[in-house]
Amino acid sequence: MSASTIKNIMATYEQKRNNAFYNLAQKKEKIFNQIPRLRDIENEIKTCAIKSAKSILLAESNEKNSYVQSLEDNINILTKEKESLLKQANISLSDLEPKFECLKCNDTGYVNNQKCNCFIQQLINDLYNDSNLLNFNEQNFNNFNLNIFSDEVDIKYGISPRNNIKNIQKEAKNFIKNFNSSKQKNLFLFGPTGLGKTYLSSCIANELLKMQKTVLYQTAPLLINSLIDDKINNKGNNKLYNEVFKVDLLIIDDLGVEFTNSMRFEELFTIINTRLINSKKTIISTNLNLDELQSKYDDRIVSRIIANYSLLKFIGEDIRIKNR
Ligand SMILES: [Zn+2]
Questions:
Q1: Which residues have C-beta within 8 Å of that of residue 121, sequence separation ≥ 6?
Q2: 128-322 adopts what CATH topology?
């Protein structure tokens, strides 16, 4: 990744932190106007803390002297007074703290000198030119309207599309709940277009991003093309390639529409297989049925999917057409 990318991301973090502190200052101003004594307390605590730090620095022995002790006692008394004033006014202590977007790294981008997942996610977005971004915010389980699926039992499958999608949702929620478990299977979403497969992937991605997991979404043709491009043009520096294997969740959408040849099969197999070996979760969605899958892809790919993925079949009429 380029130095300017990192610089841009660091600038966003700085902006986020500045905003958090600015908002806090505004909020504090309001609270202090409401309870002026709090402003005095805050200033007194600051003064005591500075005096105490100075005294510790200048002290010749490591032992705490009585002066420092008295300052610390004073800070404790002031803090208790502050807490009780806040309690009386029904203000929580956390209202006097900055609100960062990422609670893991406090919008610094780093945790224990390691890049935070929110940082890695931004790098992924940048590497893929944001082409991997689904409509994450709007598409969530709360907006998932089950009523657009018919509740008439489909004779062929012995279940109504609505009950079927309910079961699928349940599987998806379990997938999120057990995301860190190596026993949790991956998800293979299949069935005709327009039945909410991409929408469901997006809901899952949304929840996992909230859990600070990194997510990469790509359609199969784009993914395989960019990997092959990367191999050819970027020898020894395969950044895209690495993320495909390292990202917490990889979503391969629209499998089956890509142009296939043996080199492409090999790429796809390597992705699926390596992620399985490393216990990294993957969601694959496709309009192919299982027979078509079997005739299009070689046995190694199909057998890995059948053994390691929950096969979730989407049934019903195209809800996008129905909604028009
Ligand atoms: Zn973070």
A1: 209, 214, 215
A2: Rossmann fold (3.40.50)
Cα 72 to averaged position of ligand 1 atoms, centre (Å):
33
pLDDT at 324 over 50: no
Give the separation between CA 37 and CA 48, rounded to whole angstroms.
17
pLDDT band at 2, cuts 50/70/90?
low
Rounded distance from Cα 243 to ligand 1 centre (Å): 18
Q: Which two tokens stand for residue 236?
A: 């020894």
3-state SS, residue 77 = helix
pLDDT tens-digit profile of 263-290? 888 889 999 999 999 999 999 999 999 8
Q: Which of 125, 148, 147, 120 is nearest to 136 (CA)?
A: 125
What's the gap in Å between 128 CA and the centre of ligand 1? 20
**CB distance 164 to 176 below 8 Å:** no
Residue ranges of E strands in 133-280:
186-190, 215-219, 249-255
Q: Residue type for 50, please?
A: I
Where, residue-wise, is CATH 3.40.50.300 in the chain? Answer: 128-322
State in Å: Cα 103 to ligand 1 middle. 7
Mean pLDDT score, 209-225:
88
The tokens of 202 are what?
């997006």
In this prediction the pTM is: 0.75
What type of residue sits at position 74? N
Task: Read off the tokens for 307.
Answer: 């053994």
**101 CA to middle of ligand 1, Å?**
8
What tokens were used for 104? 């893991």
Which residue(s) pair with 84 in the sheet?
A: none
Dist. CA 104 → ligand 1 center (Å)? 5
